[in-house]
Amino acid sequence: MADLFAPLRLGALDLPNRIVMAPMTRSRADTHGVPQEIVAEYYAQRASAGLIVTEAIYVSAMAKGYVRTPGLVTPEQVAAWKKVTQAVHGKGGRIFAQLYHTGRVALPDWLPGGVAPVAPSAIAINGTNQTDEGKKPFVMPRALETDEIAGVAAEYGQAAQRAMEAGFDGVEVHGASGYLIHQFLDATINTRTDRYGGSAANRVRFLREAVESVVAVVGKDRVGVKISPRIKFNDVVEPDAEEVYPVVARELSECGIAYLHGARQGAYEVHNLRALFSGAYLAGSGFDFEKANDAIVSGAADAVVFGKPFLANPDLPRRYREGLDLAQPDQGTIYWGGAKGYVDYPAHM
């Protein structure tokens, strides 16, 4: 019977354990979206994870949503990520790039020419986004024209190609957290009347097109998708999630991708989708060691995704295996700064 430390065949990869490092924004890129040198050290320190999934990486200049976040658009960004993958592989690890387009989350401050962000519909987020000049209100996005959408979906595949050039082992498509794919899924954000709006099948169409563009580049056995229905973030509501997400699971099964990563961060019981998805299921959010091991033993998940425990515990798999105490992260350095609170957490003695 498998447990959290059992090996796992995940698509094209052989994982030594079923402890996956979650994608977590750390804001250690420069103003041009190039990861700092210490990013390679940070991920290499955590290479004992069965799989590392990077922080979200924007797929095009129009996709950037936050300050000091990294991209996979320019040659300089690709070169910096290549140092990261080489460092992780040098420690025997495996690493996927999480790709996203933030859609209406972006502000004109960092978009080309200061243009408006794009979204399924011209509906703004209530609230503010953090910039170097302080908090600024979200702006009204421009609704994408129907004939533009396939080109935006193709940007995921183009970024996946650059991810392969940078040496990543695969790609996770970010379909959660109220970003562009999630915006298409949510009927309160997507009020379109064309083939990308209305029915659940229509609203899932953009996700499928983005995934298919990635699969065409890297192969289906090196692709995963993250979802987090009804997450309380970026004005996500999803009144008909019970109708939409079974469609998501079935369509992704048809695509034949390696895994579905479901993060339970809202009221929707996302882990129930395991029964509808034919690939590996990665369960995330809110797990401690005992709950995670139970999920593997019971067959509720094939692997478990851990976020916060990896921040201050670079050797998390060893600590779980040996029952060692966990360190707690400095909350004030999670999103800002340099090495402090990033690469200065030691392995357990």
What does this structure look like?
- By secondary structure, the protein is of the alpha/beta class.
- An eight-stranded parallel beta barrel has the order 3-4-5-10-11-12-13-14, surrounded by four helices.
- The protein has a single domain (8-308), classed as TIM Barrel (Alpha-Beta Barrel).
- The protein contains nine helices and 14 strands.
- Give the strand tally: 14
CATH fold call: TIM Barrel
Mean residue pLDDT: 97
Proper CATH architecture: Alpha-Beta Barrel
Structural class category: alpha/beta
Identify the CATH homologous superfamily: Aldolase class I
Please give the largest β-sheet. Answer: 8 strands, parallel, barrel
Rg:
19 Å
- DSSP strand content: 15-25%
Low-confidence segments: none
Strand order of the biggest β-sheet: 3-4-5-10-11-12-13-14
Number of helices: 9
Supply the number of structural domains: 1
Global shape: globular
What is the share of helical residues? Answer: 25-40%
Cα separation of the termini? 31 Å
What order do the helices and strands follow?
Answer: EEEHEHEEEEEHEHHEHEEHEHH
Class, according to the CATH hierarchy?
Alpha Beta
Task: Kindly list the characteristics that best describe this protein.
alpha/beta; 17% strand; 9 helices; eight-stranded parallel β-barrel; single chain; 349 residues; two-stranded antiparallel sheet; TIM Barrel
